[in-house]
Amino acid sequence: PMTVLARGHGSIGPMLAYRHAFHAGNHADVLKHTVLVAVLRHLAAKDKGFRVIDTHAGAGGYSLQGRYAQKKHEYEGGIGRLWARDDLPPPVADYVDLVRQFNGDGALHQYPGSPAFARMLLRPQDQLRAYELHPTDFKILSSYLADAPGTEVHLSDGFAALKAQLPPPTRRGLLLIDPPYEVKTDYTRVLAALREALTRFADGVVMVWLPQLQLLEARQLPQRLKASAESQAKKGWLLARLSVGQADARGFGMLGSSVFIANPPHTLAPALRQALPWLADVLSAGQAEHALELSSHA
């Protein structure tokens, strides 16, 4: 298990104020990482190596006893609700087993970020390229991944890395785009990154995490991603949505989240048909909804 974890070190300016430690293990992480694990399992089913590019990698792992996680207790409505259950659908069970592996002692003390799931599932022939701009998170991530073979960690803008990283030499890869959406430019940059990625690597898997917010940009982005993937992605697209609660009276708060995949593995939709209804029921904080959309050629 990981021993050096992000416990929160304050903001270092408006562009870098976001710390995922507040939200680690919440309902959005459950959806995102259930999908991520399913995609990585599919890629690893063939012997040929693949490259994972994580544009907003974070710290790699988060203490659930740290002051950030304890401030909001969001994980209790996410991974906390799954931890003791013995009726998990296979895709969810696979994800929770990896969280257990990350903890090591049977208790839920820490939560793995996306680079940690990648590290646990990547083989010697696979590669991980992780990008993180927050200096503290970068330092923790670098320490965690220091001895991981085939791995590079960069203190730089993941959006700007696509030219260097795509297409990978093996022509097999996953691009994970998971920005905080703290600034509205993230929405336009996500769309531009999807378009650039598919221009460079038309059959590469691109996975985008999206918050479900009242913000106009948040409501428009799924349709824009679909339109781009419809014309560029060889194997179409998939959109999975999980809504677990209601916004407050002012319309604030994250109702749920979505994961958009360009060139989804053919195994993903059947896995999500099992997982989504179950997760909506178990993680519901009021009015739960789930949806799974596929393009005609996915």
User: Radius of gyration in whole Å, from Cα?
Assistant: 18 Å
Number of strands: 10
Major beta sheet summary: 8 strands, mixed
> What strand line-up does the widest sheet have?
5-4-1-6-7-9-8-10
Q: Indicate the proportion of strand residues.
A: 15-25%
Give helix % range: 25-40%
Low-pLDDT regions: 1-18
What is the straight-line distance between the termini?
Answer: 37 Å
Overall structural class, as computed from helix and strand content, comes to alpha/beta
Order of helices and strands: HEEHHHEHEHEHEHEHEEHE
Shape category: globular
Total count of helical runs of at least 4 residues: 10
Write down the overall mean pLDDT. 90
Provide a descriptive summary of the structure in words.
The chain is of the alpha/beta class and 298 residues long. The protein contains ten helices and ten strands. The chain has helices at 27-43, 67-72, 79-82, 90-103, 114-121, 135-145, 162-165, 185-200, 216-232, 268-283, and strands at residues 51-54, 61-63, 110-112, 127-131, 151-154, 173-177, 205-212, 237-243, 256-262, 289-294. The strands form two sheets. The chain has an eight-stranded mixed beta sheet with strand order 5-4-1-6-7-9-8-10, with helices on both faces. A two-stranded antiparallel ribbon has the order 2-3. Helix 8 links the parallel strand 6 and strand 7. The radius of gyration is 18 Å and the shape is globular. Residues 1-18 have low confidence and may be disordered.
